[in-house]
Amino acid sequence: MALLRGRLLVATPLIRVGSFWRSVVFMLDHSDEGALGVIVNRPLNAAVADVLPQWADVVTAPTQLFDGGPVGSDAALALGVVHDGLVPHGWHQMADRVGLVDLDGPVPASGQFAGLRVFAGYAGWGVGQLEGEIDEGSWVIVDAIESDLSSPHPETLWHDVLLRQPGDLRLMASFPPDPDLN
After folding, report:
1. Options 1.50.10.20, 3.90.190.20, 2.30.38.10, 3.40.1740.10; which CATH number does 7-55+66-76+121-181 get?
2. pLDDT tens, 76-113?
3. For strand 113-125 and strand 64-67, is the pairing parallel, antiparallel, or unpaired?
4. Domain boundaries in the chain?
5. Alpha-carbon span 82 to 99, nearest angstrom
6. What is the pTM of this model?
7. Cα(42)–Cα(23) distance, integer angstroms
């Protein structure tokens, strides 16, 4: 399987409950040792200003903390999309203009990022685990666009990402939240 770094995993209707239901995961790393990503469409009811007040003025709206996944939910990590030709201090490239941002370093000036989000936790898979979930049809792999990471409407991102796909895959966007009620 090709490496997934910088791509999106979109949950299919086979995932009916739990933290991955209708999730969109940006893949930070994928190798023969496992995989790591963050759920980019799960804002929490906590403002970044309440948790990391020094970062409140540089995060992209909505300025909430995001649930990055079920692993390490007591730790925070940030993803930033840089402007062309600009590499802010503390930014570490993951894919193209997307990278991890050091939350312990100096806070960059407002406007240094095209988008910045802070996540509590992350999504992680052991050796072969993600590949098995993809093979069983729980995930589809699609290209990410940088605006996915800082969408002003994360609650519609699952639908929006699927709707822009070609062919039959876009039909999944109209799948009802609870098919048993259909």
Report:
1. 3.40.1740.10
2. 999 999 998 888 889 999 888 999 999 999 998 888 89
3. parallel
4. 7-55+66-76+121-181
5. 8
6. 0.92
7. 8
